[in-house]
What does this fold into?
Amino acid sequence: MALEKPYADIPGTTIFDAEQARRGYHLNMFCMSLMKSDARDRFRADQRRYLDEWPMSEEQKLAVLARNYNAMISLGGNIYFLAKLFATDGKSFQYAAALMTGLSQEGYQQMMVAGGRSPDGNRFIGEKPNG
Amino acid sequence: MARITAGVTTSHVPAIGAALDNGRSHDAYWAPVFAGFEFSKRWIAASRPDVVLLVYNDHATAFSLEIIPTFAIGCAERFQPADEGWGPRPVPVVEGHPELAAHIAQSVIQSDFDLTIVNKMDVDHGLTVPLSLMFGQPAAWPCRVIPFAVNVVQYPPPSGNRCYQLGKALRAAIEAFDQDLNVQVWGTGGMSHQLQGPRAGLINTEFDRRFMDRIVADPVALAMLPHVEYLREAGSEGVELVMWLVMRGALQADARELYRFYHVPASNTALGHMILENPPAARR
It folds into this structure.
């Protein structure tokens, strides 16, 4: 019997559940390896070669190279692991969050200072978004 | 005997640690955040806990996907601040309380909560940012700390009720410890925030304020809130709030709210902070 996923109808949100964790295991463990500075150096020197050391799917590797965080998340990435990747690039959580929302850095920061994204219109897929 | 005197909750946003460590705590953006902890710093200097049992979550630092304990208690003599990719935070080493931690582990496991015992572990911002907020920048932390890690990274975290009941088991264990210790239990993480996907940046002030009201006055019902409500209303990372319920379970039903602070935003997050005190008789 399939696992119940009552969170599947939340828009713009991928819950890192057992299925996603299985899909993203090697992607996330690659990110984890970037906790060490010599690994970061090797990755920066030749990203493709470093990625080829990991049993990740080609799709996952391309998403990493493109720094497409939404794609990485849909392929099983978890934000706390992906944080090692954007930290390697010298980027912050706020940078990555802005990128995933499609807003500019300034636009995202302004939204947060103004109180953040309202839950109204953002609770269920198919609702009319309201800001 | 050891006694639980108070509970503290606070968000543990990494950018707060970075702001403090880099001397930006007086910037216009960060000053209101740190101002919200001025009362708390005075209060904790006066209340002088011997031990803080600090409930937090590891953020893919000590635990990768290789091993994911739902509940883990740190029993080591000391814990090093972790290198999370930017170098370790310049904060003191965290001194544990191995005797009390081992006592809690044995007692709580016999109360049907199957803790993972960790004798070697680095601690990340989830643990050190709350210490910085409450104690500032001392040369050494003024108390012992027992790290208590809860998995909220891979879904599902433990249920709110499980966390609340665990708090009660922790209380029984601590109160049976045969040393005269002033113990606080802290629950960290939250409040509403979402760090991932097109819905990132979600903040739900109404949910957060209601959560703070209910954790004081109505914790039994609050503990029954299903995970999906946290995810939908408070964002995918807002589910960290179940850790506040461990703190609440460890305090008495008639604990009172001493202080509350709420601020939006701290980076991507709604920052919430509370101090709850047990009745005077329990504090002695």
